[in-house]
Amino acid sequence: MSMPLKWEFPGGKIDAGESPEECLKRECREELGIEIDVGDALSPVTHSYSTAFTVTLYPFLCSIRSGEVTLHEHKAVQWVAPADMRLLDWAGADWPIIEEYGGKKRAG
Description:
Layout: H1 20-32, E1 35-41, E2 45-49, E3 53-57, E4 60-66, H2 95-107
Antiparallel strand pairs: 1-4, 2-3
């Protein structure tokens, strides 16, 4: 929890031999107790934080296949309309994803 109380998308470190899609499925199962279907990929994002670490995010459009969201590692979960995503206090690496997703929703 290097950024407590910031909003972020579910996910985590990709294990050796694991694809980004497999990682996201595993992390959603572990963090949220849900099974997901992974859809289209958005653009990967590499972001450096001032605390001297860099992350690369591999975002995907997903849907819940089964399960009820149960928070195992997080304080809260919130469903918001794409336009309202900009109102939350997001971790820095997530902003390019929000901008790309918002553009896709307006275009689609």
